Amino acid sequence: MNIRIKFQKYGVMKFIGHLDMMRYFQKAIRRAGIDIAYSEGYSPHQIMSFAAPLGVGVTSDGEYFDIEVKSSKSSQDAIEALNQTMVEGIRVLEYKRLPDTAKTAMSLVSAASYLIYVKSGYEALAASIEGLQAKVEAFYQEQDEINIVKQTKKQEINMNLKPLIYEMKMVNLQEEYPNLKETPAGNHGIFLRVCTGSSDNIKPELVLEAFSRFCNQDYEPWDIQIHRLEVYAKSEEIPVKGEQERKLYEKYLKQLKQSWTEKKKTFPEFFALGELGEDIIYGNDIAGDQA
User: Fold this and answer.
1) Residues 6+ apart with CB under 8 A from 209
2) Which end of the chain is more exposed for a tag (fewer CB within 10 A), N or C?
3) What is the DSSP letter of 265?
4) Which residues face 271 on adjacent strands?
């Protein structure tokens, strides 16, 4: 059985890197009594893969990883068991079953959304909400291209960020995000949705650097809190393997689009990774089911 787990990361845990987070969850899963499957061979390891590694210092409400289990508790019981083992700064939000032929979260990732704001005690992004909104509109909506030089390990690459930024807007933090774990300076911030994945992966820091230059301001990374809100797959992406399974999903997708049309709503370009699974209502024994 394939399981997709969603969790939050905040507080001092934002300074823990990706590899250490993997080791942490490997131990937490054992302590929580999750019947995780192991690989075969001379050095067995838990079958686990993370969707999109989070940068050090970035907080998040939308982190995902997939595991394979031999049997499972209900989603509610599994979440409770996992959270009993969590340290402050990590909290499990979802535990959902995936189809047996599901693609991994890592292979599906195509976008991520972020909330960007200045930390308490530092100078706000703009003197007023109206001022920030005008700057964001001039930077994102009024420019045909947003050209930058991206430094890689081997070379510098000239690239246009504009087609890789799916959405950028000013937000009122107090009204739209009243439950932030970190205290912001002022009531306004920036919502950003960017291309994320194996082919084109745009870090929000790149956009912030370009935005700061556009505003004739120095980019001060230590003043800024970047908070990941969600990770997405493209709604048109078929999230399962196998010819028969793909045909069934295409049929379901067609019906889903039709229902959105009937409600006179625009079909979304992206789905959150957690929407591709379903809650387990009752615990079950996979081996017993197969017998």
Assistant:
1) 148, 219
2) C
3) -
4) 233
